[in-house]
Write a structure and sequence with these properties.
There is one protein chain. This protein is α/β, with parallel strands linked by helices and 291 residues long. The strands form 3 sheets. The protein has a 7-stranded mixed beta sheet, with helices on both faces. It has a two-stranded antiparallel ribbon with strand order 1-2. The relative contact order is 0.10. The radius of gyration is 21 Å and the shape is elongated. 43% of the residues lie in helices and 21% in strands. The protein binds S-adenosylmethionine. The site of S-adenosylmethionine has 21 residues, from helix 7 and helix 10.
Length: 291
């Protein structure tokens, strides 16, 4: 079959759901990923023939896209901070906002020459942990998650990128971190409210793991409370916490950090102008206000 004929089938089957431009985008990714050819290949070689086997791969991918699977899950891979990151239904697809969080940490620590102990809480695919390990070579990075499937994927990603990051199964609610054991704690925990589900795209709700995304409406800060309280203990004096947050709760998360005597609390926005990140320093002052 000619490649251009398959492209035609993609448009016929998918345009109504995704729009023609998006379908072109999918198709070019398929060409790169499955055929190892540049995406403009079809323009140069309009009569390019693909094998029966390749045809099968394209049609299986088409069927997954028709069912609403995100492109990254269909290909099994995405890119985060220019690192290839394997993804599947056990892990959240890394978001561009999270790259901003990682860039901020790299910017703050790029000139450090001493060892930095870093903990990524709720590591998922390992995207944060691995990119910090890559771009802060003096960092000794550990990632924790409750999901065995996520941890398996994170370990595969460490091998894929030849990075030495330890991934350990642990529950945010019971993690009990050793005292003064980290210089940096970073987390992008579940923060989407159950009531926000209805506004989300179907494929996100259906394909991505619920445990990576949602928190009950009546306890939106549940994970932040555990993380901040543990970070207070586990960070060294002068150590920093970096959190990705739900845009609705910038003030609440900042107040939580203040209650735990963190200082230099900075709330910042993502590329869409929404409150998305909070950073703070652990000064180790006493008298934590109990709530
Ligand atoms: C929003 S995802 C973040 C994944 C990844 N760090 C990223 O930024 O793309 C939250 C992660 O927290 C994990 N998680 C959920 N509940 C947890 C718990 N109680 N203890 C540890 N990890 C948990 C999920 O499995 C998921 O991987």
């Amino acid at each position: 079959m000619l490649l251009k004929e398959i492209k035609h089938v993609f448009h016929k089957e998918l345009d109504q759901r995704y729009g023609s431009d998006e379908v072109d985008h999918f198709f070019y990714h398929f060409i790169e990923h499955y055929l190892g050819l540049p995406k403009f290949h079809l323009a140069l070689q309009p009569e390019w023939i693909i094998t029966k086997e390749e045809e099968g791969v394209f049609f299986r991918g088409l069927s997954a896209l028709k069912q609403g699977q995100p492109l990254q899950y269909v290909l099994g891979i995405t890119s985060f901070m220019d690192l290839p990151i394997k993804v599947n239904n056990n892990v959240l697809i890394p978001r561009p906002e999270t790259e901003e969080l990682v860039r901020a940490i790299i910017e703050d620590y790029k000139d450090f020459s001493t060892a930095l102990r870093v903990l990524d809480i709720g590591t998922g695919s390992g995207c944060i942990a691995l990119s910090l390990s890559k771009y802060l070579p003096m960092a000794i990075v550990k990632g924790i998650d409750l999901s065995p499937g996520a941890l398996k994927t994170a370990r595969e990603n460490a091998r894929l990128n030849e990075l030495d990051v330890e991934f350990v199964e642990s529950d945010i609610r019971t993690m009990n971190l050793p005292e003064e054991s980290y210089d940096i704690i970073v987390s992008n925990p579940p923060y989407v409210l159950d009531m926000e589900k209805s506004a989300m795209e179907e494929h996100v709700k259906e394909a991505e793991p619920s445990m990576a995304l949602f928190v009950p409406d009546d306890t939106p800060l549940v994970f932040y409370k555990y993380i901040v309280s543990e970070a207070r203990k586990a960070l060294v004096k002068g150590g920093a916490i970096y959190l990705e947050i739900n845009q609705r709760f910038g003030n609440e998360v900042s107040n939580l950090l203040e209650d735990h005597k963190f200082e230099s609390i900075e709330l910042s926005k993502d590329l869409y102008g929404r409150d998305r990140f909070v950073k703070a320093i652990n000064t180790k002052k006493q008298n934590i206000k109990q709530k």
